[in-house]
Write a structure and sequence with these properties.
Strand order of the largest sheet: 2-8-7-6-3-4-5
Radius of gyration: 19 Å
Helix content: 40-55%
Structural class: alpha/beta
CATH class of the largest domain: Alpha Beta
Oligomer: single chain
Order of helices and strands: EEEHHHHHEHEHEHEHEHE
Shape: globular
Distance between the termini: 8 Å
CATH architecture of the largest domain: 3-Layer(aba) Sandwich
């Protein structure tokens, strides 16, 4: 297996439908050896709609149950959008700060309390979806971005080491990866550690480089959020942004695309239906 990064083309190229290139790479880039996947929104749609849980929670806690003005609603929406992909506890730290700063709600909790309440509301929705999977009422593909499983299988068959790094709580990520039938594809699944303010995505990249001896250039980071893409770029990894519409599980989400461009993604795809073409860009086989 050889990298064939000469196929990557130039900034602005659209070599295949659904694939855009935004940053050129050197032709002599080392062979890719490991892939780090974000999970929610990149592979899984089990948590699709989490923003619709977080936004009213934040507004309710900030106002104390009162009606928000347009500016507050806009600021909450903007924060949720720009913070996509970070650990949930960081989002709840922002919420705690806003509740204290605005003084509209006399009852102020700490960030962990807000996180627990958010998770309780969110997991009511996720549990229903997971139960449908477990009872055979839904297929795993019903909650996965189009083509993602086939793409994961192809990477594993090529001998790459695959990892999941998510801002969702570790136990929940493991359960949801398992529910989708993907557990055995990954070397390691890393979610947010319980009651710790750590970035699992940064930790996995650091583990692979500092402990396992990979070079940053040997890593491929795949995600739909700016956090993992920015971390990948900083580490010298190749980055693939996934700007999928999570409701349809395919096609373009323009807001995601803009976030991924700003984060510095080398390539952006709409979904993994173009997975074969992505692999043809990244790799070539030479005997």
């Amino acid at each position: 297996m050889q990298n064939n990064n000469g196929h990557l083309g130039k900034k602005g190229d659209r070599i295949f439908p659904g694939i855009e290139i935004f940053n050129e790479l050197d032709n002599d880039r080392p062979e890719l050896k490991a892939v780090i996947f974000d999970f929610d929104g990149t592979i899984s749609t089990l948590r699709q709609g989490w923003e619709e849980i977080m936004e009213p929670l934040m507004i309710e806690m900030i106002t104390g149950g009162g009606l928000p003005d347009d500016q507050l609603t806009r600021e909450v929406k903007e924060y949720i959008d720009e913070s996509t992909g970070i650990q949930t506890i960081f989002q709840m730290q922002w919420l705690e700060s806003e509740v204290r700063k605005r003084g509209l709600n006399p009852q102020v909790h700490d960030a962990w309390w807000y996180k627990d309440e958010y998770n309780r509301r969110l997991l009511d929705m996720v549990k229903t979806r997971a139960e449908k999977l477990e009872q055979g009422q839904s297929n795993p593909e019903d909650f996965m971005i189009k083509g993602s499983k086939k793409f994961i299988q192809a990477l594993r068959n090529m001998g790459l080491k695959l990892y999941v790094a998510s801002g969702t709580d570790h136990g929940d990520v493991v359960r949801e990866v398992t529910a989708l039938g993907l557990y055995d594809y990954f070397q390691q699944i890393s979610g947010a550690p319980e009651r710790k303010v750590d970035c699992s995505k940064e930790a996995v990249i650091r583990l692979l480089i500092e402990t396992m001896g990979f070079k940053g250039e040997e890593l491929l980071v795949i995600g739909d959020g700016k956090v993992e893409i920015a971390l990948g770029v900083e580490a010298g990894a190749l980055t693939l942004g996934v700007a999928a519409d999570e409701v349809k599980r395919e096609g373009l989400n323009p807001a995601k695309r803009e976030r991924l461009i700003k984060a510095g993604a080398h390539m952006i795809i709409e979904d993994f239906s173009c997975g074969k073409e992505v692999l043809s860009i990244l790799f070539s086989s030479e005997d």
